[in-house]
Specification:
The protein is α+β, with helices and mostly antiparallel strands and about 725 residues long. Helix content is about 25%, strand content about 25%. Strands 1, 2, 3, 4, 5, 6, 7, 8 and 9 form a nine-stranded antiparallel β-sheet that branches.
């Protein structure tokens, strides 16, 4: 939940890293080795667009530091980065370093540490959640991440997002507390699966126009391939490159005797031990879908018997392709190669993409039971689409449609992509619209908006370049994956005004007159819908405190509550993504005693597809000095993930009322998925429920008082949810 924004920035950075230099081990962590102030320190590389300088006038120690300068605009990010080979034994890696900031705003400054595997980022932290802004003298900072066996590359960096300047000096990298500069590299064992290179440059499989018979074979192959991947001990041990084994069996679908070929291919993995399925004392939420394990279609009696033996084989809690996050439990899909340079014309790799994603969802998505469509039906309907999607855009749109089928707001294609950018529109009018009462209503202007525009907040955009917005909404919603329609409309609204042209024509209906106006567009990356210039807290009339978690600095909530403890009421505005994790820090001050507010479901490798409940989690402790006034929580479709989790915790307090409309309905720590072509997506990795088992996914957080903004209210400059909260507190 709280990691998803960090991961999103991580994925954006990945696009800059792909072409980075080869790792170097010179360990120029103090920046002293630099040929000139115009270039970078030796061994370091630049990410982002900001100016980087070697600064000899402001070092923390020695003679040099590195300065990142956002310049006047400061609309993106800048970073100075260093690559390290992960050839050191240990469980944790720590980056220490000194940082100084000047006028940092509309973003943050921090150290960055990232551990990559074959599929990209495994662990990532850039101190975004600490919210370091403003002016700060030299200070030492530190971040620590796990260092898993499957690490393939480590990046350390300083990063500046937004406006201002930041200086960095005296970095140090520690493995389990020991300075890396004093450690000797160790030779790590390489799994046999990683040594198989036969299909590194292509699957060597051509499908052509798939017949109905071939599609039927592919359907059963997808299910058997995925079943073996997550059940067979040989695959779990990394003895077999399961991607490449798919390419070895694929030609059999073009020939006679596929059922026998499938049996022989499966049995080449060898016999397995059989054991009784262990009983669990945990409450079971979902059982694996095993009704297909019977002789039918292309599945012979002999194959089914073999698969059932594999199903009963003993399995570890970790495998070559899968682990579970420590202390959290969401799946971590490991050793899934990105194959970023493989062309979309490769039939085998497109099928691998479909097979890989479908089986990840089949066995490790906690909300499969909430989909509108049967997941087996999705596989059947997707096969001909992926078989035909030879062009890059067609492949990515097919993947986007598949991702949309799981109906999870965390699930989208989270990457910078030229084809998708062109499809959605590379430019955008600097106007924010929301879908209110079924209309595209102007709610905000960005700084790039032309000053002579007649458009006002509250105006309705009826047409874009002559096309009715109602029609555009229905066209674009297909490619806006989300848990529910209000959240889809949220995302559609952010694409309505996108174009590949420099201008768009808007037809506008105001309160008094209808008119048309041409609006100059700007590059989409210059617009940040999530960023709002709202203070972290303020006092409202009527002895009411107001908290906006989207602007909180780390730990600031404690100081705020000292000011607000005697207030008649507090409004917590969660129409944002919290910049600090306040579930327990704020929740503990609102509760008189420990109070249950949530429980989770977790998957496992012993029974892939099974999800069991953990124990109920509590917030708060015995506290006679808890806040005793009313607490109003504001929510809407922008309340997502960590914000939803926070709402669940805070509403457990006495005298609390939730006001607004259904949230984004995507809770639970995210798990990253990598697909061929370098496509990156995510899923909600654990199931999140109220203590009584009530669903939150797709449903969202239901308000006590349902209220949505009105067009009339927008035109009058009202915040109707906030006014309702103040009214309730005063009652």
């Amino acid at each position: 939940m709280r990691k998803e924004l960090l991961l999103t920035l991580s994925l954006l950075l990945f696009g800059s890293i792909v072409g980075a230099q080869e790792p170097t081990q010179n360990f120029n962590f103090d920046f002293e080795k630099a040929k000139s102030e115009e270039g970078l320190p030796d061994g370091w590389m630049q990410w982002g667009s900001y100016q980087l300088l070697v600064d000899a006038d402001n070092p923390h120690s020695g003679t040099k530091a590195v300065l990142i300068d956002a310049g006047e605009d400061g609309g993106s990010f800048g970073s100075v980065a260093y690559s390290i080979k992960p050839e050191y034994a240990g469980e944790k890696i720590t980056l220490e370093g000194y940082m100084k900031t000047e006028n940092v705003s509309e973003g943050f400054a921090g150290l960055l540490l990232r551990v990559d595997g074959d599929s990209g980022p495994l662990h990532f932290d850039n101190m975004q959640n600490q919210g370091i802004q403003g002016n700060n003298d030299w200070k030492k900072y530190s971040i620590t991440l796990p260092l898993p066996e499957e690490a393939r590359q480590i990046f350390v960096a300083g990063i500046l997002v937004g406006k201002g300047k930041a200086w960095y000096d005296n970095f140090k990298v520690l493995i389990d507390g020991k300075d890396i500069r004093g450690l000797k590299p160790v030779e790590k064992a390489i799994a046999k699966a990683a040594l198989d290179e036969e299909f590194d440059y292509g699957s060597k499989f051509t499908l052509g126009s798939a017949s109905e018979e071939q599609l039927e074979k592919l359907y059963w192959l997808a299910k058997v391939w995925g079943f073996l991947k997550y059940h067979h001990p040989q695959i779990a041990a990394g003895e077999v490159n399961w991607d490449y084994e798919l390419f070895r069996i694929l030609p059999a679908i073009l020939e006679e005797g596929f059922d026998m070929a499938l049996l022989n291919w499966a049995q080449q993995l060898g016999e397995v031990e059989m054991t009784d399925t262990p009983d669990t004392e945990m409450e079971i939420k979902l059982q694996p879908s095993t009704e297909w394990l019977k002789p039918q279609g292309l599945l012979s009696e002999a194959l089914i018997q073999y698969l059932k033996k594999v199903q009963s084989a003993p399995r570890e809690s970790n495998s070559y392709y899968l682990a579970f996050a420590p202390n959290i439990g969401n799946p971590q899909f490991k050793n899934e190669k990105a194959y970023k340079d493989i062309a979309s014309t490769d039939d085998g790799f497109r099928l691998l993409s479909l097979f890989r994603y479908w089986n990840m969802i089949e066995y490790f998505f906690p909300y499969k039971h909430l989909m509108d469509e049967d997941w087996n039906t999705v596989l059947k309907s997707s096969l001909p689409i992926f078989a035909k999607a030879k062009e890059p855009l067609a492949y990515k749109l097919a993947t986007l449609q598949l991702i949309g089928k799981i109906q999870d707001t965390h699930a989208n294609i989270w990457m910078q992509d030229e084809d998708l950018s062109q499809f959605h529109g590379k430019n955008i009018a600097p106007i924010e619209v929301n879908i209110i009462e079924g209309q595209a209503v102007v709610v905000r202007f960005f700084s790039q908006m032309q000053e002579d525009s007649k458009i006002k907040v509250g105006d309705i955009i009826t047409h874009v370049n002559g096309q009715a917005t109602s029609k555009l909404i229905e066209e674009k919603i297909t490619y806006c994956p989300a848990s529910n329609r209000p959240t889809q409309l949220r995302d559609v609204a952010r694409r309505l005004l996108r174009s590949n042209d420099g201008q768009i024509e808007l037809s506008v209906s105001s309160a008094k007159v209808d008119f048309k106006e041409n609006i100059t567009c700007v590059p989409t990356q210059e617009i940040n819908f999530w960023r709002r210039d709202v203070p972290s807290h303020k006092e409202l009339e009527g002895d009411i405190g107001y908290i906006y978690p989207g602007s909180l600095e780390k730990g600031e909530i404690n100081d705020i509550m000292k000011q607000f403890m005697d207030k008649k009421g507090i409004v917590v505005d969660l129409r944002c993504y919290p910049s600090d994790f306040i579930v327990f820090s704020l929740g503990g001050q609102l509760m008189p005693k420990p109070t249950e507010f949530v429980k989770f479901t977790f998957g496992n490798l012993q029974q892939p597809g099974q999800f069991t409940f953990g124990t109920n989690l509590k917030v708060g402790g015995e506290n006679t000095n808890y806040y005793k006034g009313k607490v109003a929580i504001l929510i809407n479709e922008t309340t997502q993930s960590q914000a939803e989790y926070t709402t669940m915790a805070l509403r457990a307090a006495p005298k609390t009322q939730v006001i607004g409309s259904t949230t984004a309905a995507a809770d639970g720590n995210v798990s990253q998925i990598i697909l061929p072509g370098g496509i990156r997506t995510m899923i909600s990795g654990i199931g999140v429920y109220y203590p009584d088992g009530t669903e939150t996914q797709r449903v969202g957080i239901k308000p006590d008082v349902e209220l949505r903004p009105s067009i009339e209210g927008i035109r009058k400059g009202k915040d109707e949810l906030l006014e309702k909260a103040q009214e309730w507190i005063q009652q």
